[in-house]
Amino acid sequence: MSHQCMLTAQKANRIRGCIKTSADSRSREGILPLYSALVRPHLEYCIQLWSTQHRTDMDLLEWVQRRATKMIRGLEHLSYEDRLGQLGLFSLEKRRLRGDLKAAFQYSKGAYEKDGDRLFSRACWDRTSGNDFKLKEGRFSLDRRKKFFTMRVRKHWKTLTREMVDAPSLETFKARLDGALSNLI
After folding, report:
1. Which DSSP state fits 148?
2. Could you tell me if 130 and 161 are in contact, meaning their C-beta atoms sit under 8 angstroms apart?
3. Which residues does 2 contact at the CB level (< 8 Å), separation at least 6?
4. pLDDT over 70 (residue 97)
5. 18 SS3 class
6. pTM to 2 decimal places
7. In 3D, which of 48, 42, 49 has the Cα closest to residue 6?
8. Residues in contact with 97: Cβ distance below 8 Å, sequence separation at least 6, in sequence order
9. What value does the mean pLDDT take over residues 6-25?
10. Is the pLDDT of residue 38 over 90?
């Protein structure tokens, strides 16, 4: 996976460099749509499937977004987090978490009926804080298993509120999740 992350970061950074040299304006209106359409899809391609497990790999992918946000005129002096806030973007780590939680929501609502029953073990408790729908924690002997989709989601799912988990649609869930995402990590 480290090799895959390195190749992805190189490709995305080359595209970012092309945008930097070919764009006439460094305005937000010029750079942000190009970044969102041409660079970020490379950084997020199949990210829920091959989620990075090492901090160095995550930092390498985040470095490309860090450099892209620094290209925008007027934001160069701000910190990375402030630049993301000004642009209305999330860090790649938060976007990965958002994608994981969206997929878990769809599983919980039965969108993937064929395999969804075997993916999660559900535990319903009515005497807990947060939401009533908890995902059971498995016991594993290998550290690799602890990085799987179900374990990544379970850790953050239990922090979601009842209103988020009981959302009537995916769009409502995404809107509520975006509002609360800054508190999840």
Report:
1. S
2. yes
3. 54, 56, 57
4. yes
5. helix
6. 0.74
7. 42
8. 152, 156, 181, 184, 185
9. 91
10. yes
Q: Which of 104, 97, 134, 102 is nearest to 119 (CA)?
A: 104
What does each C-alpha distance from 45 to 22, 51, 73 come to in angstroms?
A: 24, 10, 28
pLDDT band at 18 (very low <50, low <70, confident <90, very high): very high
The answer, yes or no, to whether residue 37 has pLDDT greater than 70, is yes
Residue 95 has pLDDT above 60, yes or no: yes
SS3 assignment, position 53:
coil
Name the pairing type of β-strands 122-124 and 133-135: antiparallel
Percent pLDDT > 70 in the chain is 74
H-run or E-run covering 124: strand 122-124
Helix (H) or strand (E) holding 135: strand 133-135
Name the maximum alpha-carbon separation found in the chain. 59
d(CA 16, CA 69): 10
HSE (CB half, 13 Å, CA atoms) of 177?
A: 25
Q: Which amino acid is at 44?
A: E
- Over range 48-77, report the average pLDDT: 84
Q: Which tokens go with 93?
A: 């780590």
**What does the domain layout of the chain look like in residue ranges?**
2-89, 96-183
